[in-house]
Amino acid sequence: MLGKTAAEKEVQLSELTKQQPVVLPSENKRKTKSRISKSIIYILLSLLAVVCFIPFLKMLVNATRSNEAILAGFTLIPGTALLENYRTMMEYVNIWAGFKNSLIISVLVTILSGYFSALTAYGFAFYTFKGKNFLFVFMLVMMMVPGQLGLIGFYELSKNLGILDSYIPLIVPAIASPFVVFFLRQYVQTTLHPSLIEAARIDGASEFKIFHTVAIPIMMPAVATMSIFTFIGSWNNYIMPLVILFSPEKYTLPVLMGFLKGSQVAQNLGSMYLGIAISVVPIMIAFLFLSKYIVNSISAGSIKE
Amino acid sequence: MKNVNRFGYLFIAPFWIIFLIFSIYPVALTFYYSFTNYSGSGPAEVVGLANYKRLLTDSYFVEAFFNTWKIWGINFALQIGLALVLALIFSDMRIKMRGLAFFRSIFYLPNLITISSVALLFGILLDWQHGSLNMILLKIGLISEPINWLNEPATAQLSVSLILTWMWFGHSFIVVMAGVSGISKDYYEAALIDGANRWQTFTKITIPLLKPILLYIMITSLIGGLQLFDLPMLLTDGIGSPDGSLNTMVLYLYNQAFKYNNYGYASAVAYGLFIITLIFSAMVFKGMYRNERKPRQV
Questions:
Q1: Which of chain A's residues have a Cβ under 8 Å away from the Cβ of B112?
Q2: How far is CA B86 from CA A31, A259, B80, B89, in A?
Q3: Which of the two residues, B91 and B193, has the higher pLDDT score?
Q4: Is B175 in Cβ contact with A298 (below 8 Å)?
Q5: Do A302 and B178 touch (CB under 8 A)?
Q6: What is the rounded distance in angstroms from the CA atom of residue B231 to the CA atom of residue B234?
Q7: How far is CA B291 from CA B17, B187, B278, B286, B294, in A?
Q8: B94 close to A1: Cβ distance less than 8 angstroms
Q9: pLDDT at A1
């Protein structure tokens, strides 16, 4: 991770001068000792990694085994019942439909939240208007309110607006994402210099054109960071779709998984494992390619200076 | 230059329109319902503080409160402990561990999976008769007969705690590591020269400088923990079995509202939950910063 720093070299030097005249044997012993402890740490870390991974492994293996084989005993050797399990599962639930629904909602949520949060953040950062500070502080206070607080009111509102059992209450509220606005405002204030906006104005660009051609490209890295969060959050959201949606064909993946548990599929463990695997594997593959960005965005989202 | 500031309102208007309709109005409406006996249909009759009085003496809610704390507490202690040990290992200049990126990714993976998939997966892995966990434990001879994990209050709560730890320690580890990498290397070099050992470096430099990060993890985890819902809902029968041990506050709220149609009372539960969250967040804040406010004695 780190190169050998000057200070470390210094320490070794001072050790050498302290323990005159020859220190090589003890130096060697120290190195062997640290090598052994290092190996032990690696082994423990690998064990922890295995613990993290084994439920998934078990899931993949059992997805290929028949119900009888799973009941018979534990093994990590794959079986041959994959297709059969798939057929059994598809008889009861169309998991791909849930997949598609989740994808549609999450993508739209991510786009809406990204665009409108950038718009709002820009408005807060580069214009002065009456009530600006009040609105901003009010937004921050509302950010602290847990989602469950408005759940019942939200349900009633959706009922009165006649948008229950539709995707509107799951998608449209993404336009107002206080945390994303807060994050983007911090970002755009430090990265976009007002003189750039002035220059564009002098060139005769309209305010919205400036936003689209100057501000958006500059904000893009921060928007992408937040998008990862927004997407995962929306994809994993369980309670909202559970409350809002009634028709099984509209279910998102998390709700469909809950539905799977109470259905006939639960009798067939192989199909059950396969259903879970189908909901999990694409995420794992996406993570394989995006892990660096995801990890960075978690770090960026939590460290604010 | 022409006055462009009126554009400010235009830029923030979509946000505020949606925010007022879909965030603020529902919160206010829930507040109103918490003073009524609204049942989901028909008129809502104002009953004053009756719902809140009921809440204070509701043994199910009190039970749910302690369940939530037990489950969250065990999980948080394990999660943060694990994250700190890992951070200690990877930040040590003397052992220079490799593979940080790899381990970080592997440890974080469980956090990405849809929680209902996690609940389902563990539901069958922990199954009494056919679950893999019991099969493994029986095979290697650790237990002589299968343990009914999800059917005993203590093991059911422990299971949820451990699943949460499994899901979240990687996330905490990443955040802690990000905090560690923000600490100036000079401190560590100075400590190295002064002959501080690993433990001293960790407790005297890393932990104090990580305080804001630890506070952040604690608050977000606490808020998330108090809202625990999906796992208890999906692991057993959805009403907190066995023996009410998996009845969390939000699960109670959900069932009161959408199962028993007590919208008024459920709204009071929501506000009770909110007040509890506020109180504990404030306490964490105070606890973390109390020592710094006192004048230092020499």
A1: 232, 283-284, 287, 294
A2: 22, 38, 10, 5
A3: B193
A4: yes
A5: yes
A6: 5
A7: 43, 22, 21, 9, 6
A8: no
A9: 39
Q: Give the C-alpha separation, A182 to A120, whole Å.
A: 9
Q: What is the 3-state secondary structure (H, E, C) of A21-57?
A: CCCHHHHHHHHHHHHHHHHHHHHHHHHHHHHHHHHHH
Q: Based on C-alpha coordinates, what's the Rg of chain A?
A: 27
Inter-residue contact B273 to B257 (CB < 8 Å): no
CA distance B230 to chain A (A): 7
B223 contacts on A by Cβ (under 8 Å): 146
Kindly determine whether residue A124 and residue B12, on different chains, have CB atoms separated by under 8 Å: yes
Smallest Cα distance from B298 to chain A, Å: 31
ipTM value, please give it: 0.87
pLDDT tens digits, B249-281: 999 999 999 999 999 999 999 999 999 989 988
* Lowest mean pLDDT segment, chosen from A13-22, A27-36, A270-279, B1-10: A13-22
Segment A283-298 mean pLDDT? 84
Q: Supply A143's token pair.
A: 């950010």
What secondary structure does DSSP assign to A204-269, as a single string? T--HHHHIIIIIHHHHHHHHHHHHHHHHHHHHH--HHHHHH---GGG--HHHHHHHHHHSGGGG-H
Cβ density class A51-84: b for 16+ within 10 Å, e for less? ebeebbebbbbbbbbbbebbeeebeeeebebbeb
E strand intervals along B4-95: none
